[in-house]
């Protein structure tokens, strides 16, 4: 269990995928360029490559944890984390019900 104060520290934002590509040497990782309303795109490395093609993600809105410390995955910096559920068929992206502006906060 975490407190409401801890939860409020997590910055969730809507992002729009601008570009997506497979990470060389991995069948699972995708490199995404995501607009989260900051004026420049963020690079996010996500382990959803078995369930999603890069082409299917471009233009899609996703939910991003925006205030995580950057992490290096396969030599690439990931500047956030996308949110996904997972079932027997693999990851399922969490997406807004209707389009909203990139950078809108999830409350």
UniProtKB/TrEMBL annotation:
Domain TRNA-binding as annotated: residue spans: 6-107
InterPro entries reported for this sequence: Met-tRNA-synth_bsu_C (IPR004495), NA-bd_OB-fold (IPR012340), tRNA-bd_dom (IPR002547), Tyrosine-tRNA_ligase_regulator (IPR051270)
Molecular functions (GO terms): ATP binding; methionine-tRNA ligase activity; tRNA binding
Catalytic activity: tRNA(Met) + L-methionine + ATP = L-methionyl-tRNA(Met) + AMP + diphosphate
Pfam families: tRNA_bind
Gene3D superfamilies for this protein: Nucleic acid-binding proteins
Gene Ontology terms describing biological process: methionyl-tRNA aminoacylation
EC number of the protein: 6.1.1.10
Annotated Gene Ontology cellular component terms: cytoplasm
Alphabetical UniProt keywords: Aminoacyl-tRNA synthetase, ATP-binding, Cytoplasm, Ligase, Nucleotide-binding, Protein biosynthesis, RNA-binding, tRNA-binding
Assembly: Homodimer.
Role summary: Is required not only for elongation of protein synthesis but also for the initiation of all mRNA translation through initiator tRNA(fMet) aminoacylation.
Record's protein name: Methionine--tRNA ligase
Organism: Candidatus Jorgensenbacteria bacterium CG23_combo_of_CG06-09_8_20_14_all_54_14
Designated gene of the protein: metG
């Amino acid at each position: 269990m975490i407190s409401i104060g801890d939860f409020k520290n997590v910055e969730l934002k809507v992002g729009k995928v601008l570009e997506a590509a497979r990470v060389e040497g991995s069948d699972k990782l995708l490199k995404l360029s995501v607009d989260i309303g900051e004026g420049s795109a963020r690079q996010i490395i996500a382990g959803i490559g078995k369930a999603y093609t890069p082409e299917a993600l471009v233009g899609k809105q996703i939910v991003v944890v925006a205030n995580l410390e950057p992490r290096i995955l396969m030599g690439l910096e990931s500047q956030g984390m996308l949110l996904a559920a997972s079932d027997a068929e693999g990851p399922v992206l969490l997406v807004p019900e209707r389009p909203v502006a990139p950078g809108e906060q999830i409350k």
